[in-house]
Amino acid sequence: MSTQAPDPFTTLLDLNSGSLDPERKVVERRLSDMAGMHLEGYADGTADTVIYSVHEIPVPTTNSNLMSSTTVIQPGKVGQEYYMTKGHFHNIRDRAEIYIGLSGEGCLVMATEDGQYTVETIRRGTINYVPGGWAHRSVNVGDEPLVFFAVYPGDAGYNYGTIEEEGFPVLVVAGEDGPEVVPNPRYKDAAASEAG
Amino acid sequence: MSTQAPDPFTTLLDLNSGSLDPERKVVERRLSDMAGMHLEGYADGTADTVIYSVHEIPVPTTNSNLMSSTTVIQPGKVGQEYYMTKGHFHNIRDRAEIYIGLSGEGCLVMATEDGQYTVETIRRGTINYVPGGWAHRSVNVGDEPLVFFAVYPGDAGYNYGTIEEEGFPVLVVAGEDGPEVVPNPRYKDAAASEAG
To answer: Which residues on chain A are in Cβ contact (under 8 Å) with B128?
Structure first.
């Protein structure tokens, strides 16, 4: 047996709130961490607002292990765009990921480097398959926290740079009749990079 | 992007019953499929009784993909031993697996090839980590179906032979005060192989 395998262990997951017991590693993203991600700037005085948190069950970051985490995205908007995760490719691009929706209403925006995109729904009981090669961003389009549990190979890693520079082909915005998927006017535009 | 990556897709999982929509690939195990797995033989006329079913969301069986499935184990016993899965190592031994408990009461028996073992609890909201190198069997110790959702690397594969030949170091049996973990008298005994 590889010395890179941990001993067996059990973590408790609240299947409604997504909270983990014991709580392990938590990453919080505030509006200030999201600079340049939304089309509009955030309002003065809101920089410290927590947009989302990721609660990870850490394991060695090797190919044979499986990382897992709960993501909680708060409801809200910057301009007409909903609160969302930064979104990333995996460092090892071909690694897949599985999302298990627990609560709230969301969109999972996925895109390949050559501009293919698709948007799937995240809600309680959805199992979303993010294949290798697809960047992924989740967007809270509801009034409650959006919560999902994700599983991915331990060596997948996170590449945020490509999305920070190029953006996603589409944005999810609040339209008159609810969420709308619209083209991103800054997709692969140098301006996006400067703003970020 | 690898041609071995499917397009993005979403499957619905009932977070109580574990049922999948659309239903994909189903494997059913009957008592007749479990011959030699329990210490005692099953009663005459019960050979066709379904002990458990595995409902899989199939993806290409490559390292970068993630397989996932719901397992439903019925309540019941053969002699004093509870209904359980066959149990297996992964073909690629060092691949990990994650179980998400949905309903019922169970034990997850894990063992290494050199005879180390541990037993974890499966119930609604447990996240069990099965590290690489650990064979795993789940046992329904309750009165209702035991249901969990599992995620594992696409190339992990199933090695049933070692367990069929050697068994697990311990059995889970109904004791006077509930489930008990007891030594398996046939562990690594040639008799187990002949019986199987």
So the answer is: 8-10
Can you list the domains of chain A with their CATH numbers? 12-195 (2.60.120.10)
Task: Give A19→chain B minimum CA distance, Å.
Answer: 10
Does the predicted interface ipTM exceed a cut of 0.90?
yes
User: d(Cα A109, Cα A118) in Å, to the nearest integer?
Assistant: 6
Residues in chain A, total? 196
Can you tell me the distance from the alpha carbon of B135 to that of A163, in angstroms, rounded to the nearest whole number? Answer: 40
Residues within 8 A of A (CB atoms), B 61-100 only: 63-66, 68, 92-98, 100
| CA dist., res. A148 & res. A17, Å (int) | 9
Residue of B nearest to A11 (CA): B127
Give the C-alpha separation, A106 to B186, whole Å.
52
CB contact under 8 A, A134 and B8: yes
Per-run averaged pLDDT (10 residues), chain A, 196 residues: 80 98 92 92 94 96 97 97 97 97 98 97 98 98 98 96 95 96 90 48
Verify whether the Cβ–Cβ distance A94 to B64 is below 8 Å: yes
pLDDT tens, position by position, B167-194: 999 999 999 999 999 999 999 985 544 5
User: Which structure tokens are listed for B86?
Assistant: 């066959």
Question: What distance in Å separates the CA atoms of residue A20 and residue A191, rounded to the nearest whole number?
Answer: 39
Q: How far is CA A104 from CA A82, A178, A182, A195, B128, in A?
A: 13, 15, 22, 30, 25
